[in-house]
Structures are given as structure tokens and as C-alpha cells.
Amino acid sequence: MYQGKKIVVVLPAYNASATLEQTYREIPFELVDEVILCDDASKDNTLEKARELGIRHLIRHEENKGYGGNQKSLYKAALELEADIVIMLHPDYQYTPGLILPMAHLIASGLYDVVLGSRILGNGALKGGMPLYKYVANRLLTFVQNLLNGHKLSEYHTGYRAFSREVLEKIPYEENSDDFIFDNEMLSQIIYAGFDIAEITCPTKYFEEASSINFRRSVKYGLGVLKISFMHFLQRTRLLRFGLFRLENGKN
């Protein structure tokens, strides 16, 4: 535990056998209480590797539910374990487990409700090998999102995220997509609900074994991001209302 808070790390896994051990070994277990891995119908031996490593809490999707569907299962399980702080860490080793402590601290201290590991703060993205077209798309989408959401973040597209229990209990993330757009839907909900978000500089690594989506899916993702951002704009300006931003259990 950290400052009396139970810390649970969740690992959304798909074909992560080659990188899972390296990721897992670097988790600070003097701080982290539990680790949950959800194997989204991997075609490799991710689940067997997780068992070898001694990960106690394992979820297996017999059919692939997608990146968002994977997270839904993980957050539900983390809340059932009575987590106070939930940190999503990709098991493909793109993000360093070394940031778990500062991310947890910002939430445990009561300063923030959500912490994002930003690849854009500093020079982490390009230095770590992010393809130039992805970097440019990231910057352009983030610029548009900040305008439409009435917020200011350096990056909306990081997969390294920490949440307080309150956020996961009050944001209707179960209604979100099961695909990659889940992350942006959830972040848009968090912003609209008025939760406080911190960002910390996060180095990243791009290499052959690391997960990535192809160009076609990247385009689909980008169009989905724009759609969610326009919905957010219409919601916050009261021109239209969407169930995605339901706030009966929200903070404001």
C-alpha cells in the first residue's frame, strides 16, 4: 500500500508473451498490492507466461473483445479487489513501470484524480522511436481536442494512465467502445465530469515486439477521436446531449 491506499496495476494483454516478463519484473512490488492481467484471446502463450511469473489474478477472454473490452474487464476486477488507485500499464514494455510510484503519489496525496504518462512532454516520443507520421497526427489531434474539449493536455493518446477509485466508480466507461477509441471516450468523460488530471513526462520505446495499430486502423482511430471531441463540444455548449457524458453519478 502507499499512504494507506491499495494500489492495483492492470495489464491489458494481447500477444504480449515476448515482453510480459520484462515489464512485470520492473513493477515496484514494495508499492503495488495486486497485479491483474487480462489476456484478450492471444494467439501466443501470454497466459502461460503470466502463470509462470506467478501473476495471481488472471482473466481470459475466449474471444477477442478488443482493447476497450479488455480494459472494462480489468477495471471491474480491480474495483472488486477494493483498489483505491488503479494503474494501467501496457505489458508490451513501451512504457516504463518506473513511473508507477510518482503516478500513485499524485493520486494518493489527493492532488489529482487521474495521472497520464505523456510521451509528448519533453522529447520522449521521437527519441523513443515514434514514427513521424504518428507524432504529427498526435500533435494535430491533441490541438483540436484541446479546442473542442475546452481543456489543455499535452497528449490524449497515451496508454499509461492512473485513476482513483472514485473516477472508475463514477464514469460510465462500460458504455464506451470496445475498440481503441475507448481511451479517448473515457478521457473525454473524465474531463467533462470535472476530475483533475495531471501529466508527467514518460519515455517510450518503439520496437518490433511492441504493440501498434496499422495505418488503416490509425485513420479509423483518428476519425473516431474527432467524433468524440465534437460530441464533447456539443455537450459542453448544451447544443446537444449524449448518454456518453451522463453525470448522475458524476462529480459535478
Brief digest:
By secondary structure, the chain is an alpha/beta fold. 41% of the residues lie in helices and 14% in strands.
Descriptive notes:
This protein has 252 residues and is an alpha/beta fold. It has one domain: Spore Coat Polysaccharide Biosynthesis Protein SpsA, Chain A, CATH 3.90.550.10. It contains nine helices and seven strands; from the N terminus they run E-H-E-H-E-H-E-H-E-H-H-E-H-H-E-H. It has helices spanning 17-25, 46-53, 66-80, 100-108, 124-127, 132-149, 165-170, 182-193, 215-236; strands spanning 7-13, 34-39, 57-60, 85-88, 114-118, 161-164, 197-201. A seven-stranded mixed β-sheet has the order 3-2-1-4-6-5-7, with helices on both faces. Helix 6 packs parallel to helix 9 (215-236). The protein is globular and about 50 Å long. Residues 248-252 have low confidence and may be disordered.
